[in-house]
Amino acid sequence: MSPMLAAALAAAVDAAARELQAAAATYNGYGRKGAPGLYGHLAQALAAKNLLAQYADRPPVQVYRAEFRDIPLGLYATEAAAERACQTALSDSYPPEVSIVWDWIGDEDAPDEPRELVALIDGAPEASTGYTVRALEVEPEGEDL
């Protein structure tokens, strides 16, 4: 879970708990007036459970990882952005006067397989460049990207 999402959830839990504790403030769980005690703690736990349940059923998010020979270059929200990152890295490794024509190859029937950048460099035959883009699924409550 991202720090920003965790902070937002904590603030929402605290706000809901304050409302529930205000309603339960007349009894402390032992039938006496005073501090919220047991009822207040139960109200806070219930509020946290209800808020976290909203995020539990979210589907995984798909991101795209640009790689050079299995070394990650970055994570991107779209496949096109990951492809541009690879193309830029390839272009930057050659002087400006070198002609580069690239293409992406991959099995469209196997979306889990990485797509590979191939290129014609200064008229040489098409060759693999070592750059790939791979689709990944990330759980929304997993680690930060």
Tally of individual domains: 2
Structural category is alpha+beta
Counting DSSP H or I runs of 4 or more residues, the number of helices is 3
* Low-pLDDT runs: none
Beta-strand percentage? 25-35%
How would you sum up the major sheet?
Answer: 5 strands, antiparallel
User: What do the pLDDT scores average to?
Assistant: 76
What is the count of β-strands? 5
Distinctive features:
single chain, 145 residues, alpha+beta, 2 domains, 5-stranded antiparallel β-sheet, 39% helix, 27% strand
Can you characterise this structure?
The protein is α+β, with helices and mostly antiparallel strands and 145 residues long. The chain folds into two domains: 3-56, no CATH class; 61-138, no CATH class. The chain contains three helices and five strands; from the N terminus they run ααββαβββ. The protein has helices at 3-24, 37-56, 79-92; strands spanning 61-68, 71-76, 100-105, 115-121, 127-138. Strands 2-1-5-4-3 form a five-stranded antiparallel sheet, with helices on one face. Helix 1 (3-24) packs antiparallel against helix 2. The chain is elongated. The chain starts with a helix and ends in a 7-residue tail after the last strand.
